[in-house]
Write a structure and sequence with these properties.
With about 270 residues, this protein is mainly α. It is built from eleven helices and two strands, in the order H-H-H-H-H-E-E-H-H-H-H-H-H. The chain has two domains: about 160 residues, no CATH class; about 100 residues, no CATH class. Strand 1 and strand 2 form a beta hairpin.
Length: about 270
């Protein structure tokens, strides 16, 4: 798995309808899509969600292969989750070896969880791939603004979440540079058993932490030099407003979620 294969947090330039949607619409839509994946209780519902997601990816203009690259970074998590569900789900066993057993219910559960994780990653990645970091920050702040009435700093919360997403590619690029530098000095990150590989990561983690703190300090100094003092009294060059495409998207989201709830009541398949 190469560092460049991680797509979460990156922005893919485009001029599609999805790119032009208000960030608040995309945030609400993403949240509803993620919730719908947990509402679904059968493969028929996953098929419906998958078709809707595929149509949205096609409209966005983001290449499917580009999005699929992001699965390489979490493939271990997907496989591990599937294996745990495969062997730990109780039911009538169809295969047994010692204490290990596989039931029909385990196969169903493993496939169900794997598909859910894949669609969660695709849905989350589509948000960051089609939304600029600045627009994402503004959208989060506007959605969290009601929380400011009870004393929660909505602007600071939105800023922290956006910075965390924005600097994922930066830290991954820094990790790639450090790995190449340490490999040129004789470090080995791939051979040996699990314990040896874990020890081999020490020459990578130490400079990575130092670099992360340096980047954070540089960002803080840059924000102070520009007289950043939080969200009080701040203005925006480009204001946000809902347009006709956002209203149409809102209607589609309501119909989509209603369809997911209806499909969720169908017999499990």
């Amino acid at each position: 798995m190469a560092i460049k294969d991680i797509t979460l947090g990156q922005y893919y330039p485009g001029d599609s309808v999805v790119h032009k949607l208000d960030p608040r619409t995309k945030l609400i839509g993403t949240i509803l899509f993620l919730v719908s994946l947990f509402v679904v209780k059968n493969f028929t519902g996953f098929l419906f969600c998958g078709i809707c997601l595929a149509i949205l990816v096609k409209i966005s203009g983001v290449p499917f292969k580009y999005m699929a690259r992001g699965l390489k970074a979490v493939m271990f998590l997907i496989v591990f989750t599937a294996i745990i569900n495969l062997f730990m789900t109780p039911g009538d066993p169809i295969w047994r070896f010692g204490i290990l057993k596989i039931a029909r219910e385990g196969i169903y559960r493993a496939c169900f969880m794997a598909i859910r994780l894949v669609m969660l990653i695709f849905g989350s990645s589509l948000l960051t791939l089609t939304t600029k970091p600045v627009a994402l920050t503004d959208g989060m702040e506007r959605l969290l603004s009601p929380l400011s009435k009870i004393g929660l700093p909505s602007h600071e919360l939105a800023m922290m979440m956006t910075i965390a997403l924005r600097f994922i590619p930066t830290l991954l690029d820094e990790t790639d540079k450090i790995m190449k530098a340490q490999t040129a000095r004789g470090a080995d990150f791939e051979s040996g058993n699990l314990l040896q590989r874990a020890k081999g990561l020490i020459p990578l983690l130490v400079p990575l932490f130092v670099s992360a703190f340096r980047i954070a300090a540089d960002l803080a100094m840059a924000m102070e030099a520009r007289c950043y003092r939080g969200g009080d009294g701040r203005t925006r060059m480009n204001g946000m407003a809902f347009h006709n495409c956002d209203r149409i998207a809102a209607v589609i989201l309501v119909l989509y979620f209603a369809a997911v709830i209806a499909i969720g009541k169908l017999p499990v398949f």
